[in-house]
Amino acid sequence: MAIDAATVRKVARLARIAEPEERIEALANELNGIMTWIEQLAEVDTEGCEPLTSVVAAGLPLRDDVVTMGGDPAKVTSNAPKSVGNFFVVPKVVE
After folding, report:
1. Which in 25, 50, 63, 91 has the greatest CB count within 10 A?
2. DSSP 12
3. Domain positions in the chain
4. Is the pLDDT of residue 79 over 90?
5. What is the spatial distance between Cα 80 and Cα 74, in angstroms, rounded to a whole number?
6. ∠ at Cα 47 (42, 48), nearest 5°?
7. Which pLDDT tens digit goes with each residue over 15-70?
8. Is 27 within 8 Å of 8 (Cβ atoms)?
9. Which residues contact 84 (CB under 8 A, 6 or more apart)?
10. Per UniProt, which keywords does this protein have (predicted)?
11. 41 vs 6, 20, 21, 69, CA distance in Å?
12. How far is CA 90 from CA 2, 52, 73, 85, 87, in A?
């Protein structure tokens, strides 16, 4: 389904959206890209997937809330961009 400039003008008029004439062609291209993406989504095999209408009833996996003493500080700061000793080094934000 191709959307041309005339269709964009018609939809804009029906929606009472004032769209400048120089923007119509770009908008038609954007809408065609969206329609292409929707057509690609329609090709996805969803056989066996239950329709999801809401995430309210879905539960999250829970883990036990276990208090630890932090473990190995060297391991924790090993991912930091900069550290001194077992502390993170961050830029000064207050003068």
Report:
1. 25
2. H
3. 5-42
4. no
5. 10
6. 140
7. 999 999 999 999 999 999 999 999 999 999 999 988 888 878 778 889 898 887 77
8. yes
9. none
10. ATP-binding, Ligase, Nucleotide-binding, Protein biosynthesis, Transferase
11. 26, 31, 31, 48
12. 53, 43, 17, 13, 10
What tokens appear for 13 in the block? 């008029």
Residues 6+ apart with CB under 8 A from 31: 3, 8
CA distance 5 to 43: 27
Q: Please, what is the Cα angle at 72 between 67 and 76, to 5 degrees? A: 95
Chain centroid to CA 69: 36
Residue 83: helix, strand or coil by DSSP? strand
Instruction: Let me know the angle formed at the C-alpha of 74 by 69 and 80, rounded to the nearest 5 degrees.
Output: 110
